[in-house]
Amino acid sequence: MNPSDKKAGRPLLTEGPIAKTLFLFSLPILLGNVLQSLNGSINSIWVGKFLGEQALAATSNANIIMFLLISAIFGIAMAAVILIGQNLGAKRVDEAKKVVGTSTVFFALLALIVGLIGVLFSPVILDWMNTPPDAKALAVSYTRIMFAGIPFMFGFNLIMAVLRGSGDAKTPFYFLLLSAALDVLLNPLLIVGIGPFPKLGIAGSAVATFIAQLISLVLLLVYLYRKQYFLRITRQDVHMLRLDFTIIRALIQKGLPMGLNMVVVSMSNLFLIHLVNSYGSEAAAAFGVATQISSYIQMPAMAIGGAVTSMAAQNIGAGLWSRVHRITWTGVAFNVGLTGLLVLLIHLFDREALGLFLPTDGRAIELGIHINNITLWSFILFGIFNVVAGVVRSSGAVIVPLVISFIALLVVRNPLAIYLSHASGFDAIWWSFPVSFLIAATLNLLYYRFGKWKEAKMLKAVGSKAAAG
């Protein structure tokens, strides 16, 4: 790759030292994930502090809907990442631009349809969810505004996907940081009505998110066009802003299984919550806090999994299979090191970490320590599964990783947790975590070694060169 390519922002994930490239590429993704989690936590604190439990219940119900939408859009966005990455690896910049053009129109139509349905039918959707009557009016107000902001959320996710597919993880992080800062700052101002800001109550929290995403999206677009980002759609590329159904088919066929993977995880957790709730409020509180801590433990694996998907996609497009395998094992090594370090730190300061959320002299903190002692180390196995699955998906093989997740979580973990609960009580439930993660990691490694994932294709046009490699 020549110097002018580097200056123009051409993909560089097909060359250079793998460990350094992977680390520098995954770090902004990791920081972005942490940032989004903190953003949500802080906004919940504002709502709970100023408006009380009913308002917090209202936002919780709305956030479940948003999570399902994000799951679907996440999968389609990841499909766009892979398509763009494979085309750029094969040095088909015009084909990558076609993906950008079609994705832009497709996402815009999806956003308008979903946003309109949400605004009109929020009360009906919340009724289906059995939203508590005393929280419903607040939930409707909050949810309608969140749905109105769907075009900005979808647009932001699409641009992040395009940037990551082309090898740029830093720019999305900077604008995520801007969005999170604006959201956290505007929430109390608009909820309470501080200074010149109107007092909007729970609607203020949704409006804050709406404004933050709008400003960040507009500034991101301005930045990319001023920088003359090489995948931007210019006047000469307007013809690419059309619905290419071959590309749309690939986005849906490959994207939905990746989105469903998040739904499987969510369903599995809901089943566990239902089981744990039967042991009382202290058990539920302990599990809730342990889950919050484990969500941060998982972040390195999620970031590295996203990074290896982008890197592997470009290298598959270039036909560099030996480099793809080195990316896989480097990602696995990074996961073991980073996740292992976090697990060690939590074990050393377990009581202190749980004490941030739970009374230090209550039974719940002892239950939380027990849960962490059994489950936390198993997230190293989860990370191995996630990284290997990320590489497999980058070829276009998305069904087997979904099936493995389904087997590990819904066929093994949940029934095993129920059995252990009945056989040995609350303390034994948590062995379902290491067992299910071990099965998931083993099945993914076996598929990686012996499966035909290398033969998968996102599009027939993409991968012909890679298949020859």
Automatic annotation (TrEMBL):
Q: Does the keyword Cell membrane apply?
A: yes
Q: What is its main location?
A: membrane
Membrane topology for this entry? Multi-pass membrane protein
Location in or out of the cell: Cell membrane
Q: Which GO terms describe its cellular component?
A: plasma membrane
Report the protein name in the record: MATE family efflux transporter
Keyword terms of this UniProt record: Cell membrane, Membrane, Transmembrane, Transmembrane helix, Transport
Give a GO molecular function annotation for the protein.
antiporter activity
Query: What sections of the protein cross the membrane?
Result: 21-42, 62-84, 105-125, 145-163, 175-194, 200-225, 258-276, 296-317, 329-349, 369-389, 396-416, 428-448
